[in-house]
Amino acid sequence: MVFQGEFYHTIDVKNRLFIPAKFREGLGEQFVVYPSADGCLFCYTEEKWLEVAGQIEQCSGNMEDRTRQRRLLRGVATVTPDKQGRITLTSYQVERAGLEKDVVVYGMTGRVEIWDVNRFNAEMGDASATDLDMLGVKF
Q1: Which helix H or strand E contains 43, and what residues bound it?
Q2: Nearest CA to 38 among 116, 102, 128?
Q3: How many domains are contained in the chain?
Q4: Cβ-count burial 115-126 (b if 16+ within 10 Å, e if not)
Q5: Domain boundaries, position 76
Q6: Confidence band, pLDDT 50/70/90 cuts, at residue 117
């Protein structure tokens, strides 16, 4: 499934967040939430997470690499949406992504991202031809 679109929701005092039905369908009955270095949370299907985690795990040649792995894997959690379509995030995940109240759930092709709305708006701008050129995208 290709994830696309952006949805605005709020996170409640119990760190619960609604995930849109179309994203839940694609992510499956349970999925993995990963605190990314980008300042947001990535949501992966369990299958895709195994690929990502496998890439991280392959880089374990020495103690420094293992320390990096631990930092990269800190805060990862498998979640199961409740009957209302909400997931519960850990305090670490909320803090790491800077989630306050208003949140954007954003489809990013192969994953879903969860952003604090202010951080998201600060990061985003309008797409340009330069963006396409830098990524090597040809139409």
Answers
A1: strand 41-45
A2: 116
A3: 1
A4: bbbebbeeeeee
A5: 3-135
A6: very high
Give the C-alpha separation, 38 to 55, whole Å. Answer: 18
Is 52's pLDDT higher than 70?
A: yes
Q: Which CATH number belongs to the domain containing residue 116 in this structure?
A: 3.40.1550.20
What SS3 state is found at 118? Answer: helix
Per-residue pLDDT, averaged over 48-68, amounts to 86
Whole-model pTM? 0.89
Q: Which amino acid, one-letter code, is at 32? A: V
Please give the Cα distance from 139 to 120 (Å, whole number).
27
pLDDT of residue 125: 73
CA 136 – CA 128 distance, rounded (Å): 13
